[in-house]
Amino acid sequence: MIVRIAEIQVDPANLDEYLERARTIGADSVANEPGVIAIFPMQDKRNPGQIRILGKLCKMLDSSHWPLET
What we know:
Blueprint: E1 2-9, H1 15-32, E2 36-43, E3 50-57
Protein backbone atom coordinates (compact mmCIF):
# COMPACT_ATOMS: atom_id res chain seq x y z
CA MET A 1 0.00 0.00 0.00
CA ILE A 2 1.15 3.52 -0.79
CA VAL A 3 0.01 6.66 1.02
CA ARG A 4 0.47 10.00 -0.75
CA ILE A 5 0.03 13.39 0.88
CA ALA A 6 -0.79 16.51 -1.11
CA GLU A 7 -0.73 19.94 0.50
CA ILE A 8 -2.43 22.80 -1.28
CA GLN A 9 -3.34 26.38 -0.48
CA VAL A 10 -6.74 27.46 -1.79
CA ASP A 11 -7.40 31.15 -2.43
CA PRO A 12 -10.08 32.35 0.04
CA ALA A 13 -12.12 33.72 -2.87
CA ASN A 14 -12.36 30.17 -4.29
CA LEU A 15 -12.60 28.18 -1.05
CA ASP A 16 -16.37 27.59 -1.02
CA GLU A 17 -16.33 26.39 -4.64
CA TYR A 18 -13.31 24.15 -3.95
CA LEU A 19 -14.93 22.55 -0.89
CA GLU A 20 -18.19 21.97 -2.79
CA ARG A 21 -16.37 20.17 -5.61
CA ALA A 22 -14.07 18.29 -3.24
CA ARG A 23 -17.07 16.54 -1.67
CA THR A 24 -17.62 14.51 -4.85
CA ILE A 25 -14.11 14.27 -6.29
CA GLY A 26 -12.85 11.84 -3.63
CA ALA A 27 -15.71 9.42 -4.17
CA ASP A 28 -15.30 9.72 -7.94
CA SER A 29 -11.58 8.93 -7.66
CA VAL A 30 -12.22 5.81 -5.59
CA ALA A 31 -14.93 4.65 -8.00
CA ASN A 32 -13.16 5.39 -11.28
CA GLU A 33 -9.36 5.51 -10.85
CA PRO A 34 -7.48 2.20 -10.83
CA GLY A 35 -5.63 1.56 -7.57
CA VAL A 36 -7.24 4.35 -5.53
CA ILE A 37 -8.51 2.83 -2.29
CA ALA A 38 -9.45 5.98 -0.33
CA ILE A 39 -9.11 9.76 -0.35
CA PHE A 40 -9.04 11.70 2.94
CA PRO A 41 -9.20 15.50 2.58
CA MET A 42 -8.44 17.60 5.68
CA GLN A 43 -8.83 21.32 6.30
CA ASP A 44 -6.75 23.25 8.84
CA LYS A 45 -9.07 24.91 11.40
CA ARG A 46 -6.67 27.84 11.90
CA ASN A 47 -6.09 28.34 8.17
CA PRO A 48 -9.17 27.12 6.24
CA GLY A 49 -7.45 27.55 2.87
CA GLN A 50 -4.72 25.04 3.84
CA ILE A 51 -5.85 21.64 2.57
CA ARG A 52 -4.10 18.29 3.00
CA ILE A 53 -5.24 15.29 1.03
CA LEU A 54 -4.20 11.75 1.93
CA GLY A 55 -4.53 9.24 -0.87
CA LYS A 56 -4.40 5.55 -0.04
CA LEU A 57 -3.29 3.61 -3.11
CA CYS A 58 -2.86 -0.01 -3.97
CA LYS A 59 0.83 -0.99 -4.13
CA MET A 60 0.73 -2.13 -7.76
CA LEU A 61 -0.17 1.37 -9.01
CA ASP A 62 2.78 2.93 -10.80
CA SER A 63 3.99 6.39 -9.78
CA SER A 64 2.90 8.07 -13.03
CA HIS A 65 -0.65 8.35 -11.67
CA TRP A 66 0.36 10.48 -8.66
CA PRO A 67 3.57 12.43 -9.34
CA LEU A 68 5.53 13.54 -6.29
CA GLU A 69 5.60 17.14 -7.48
CA THR A 70 3.27 18.93 -9.84
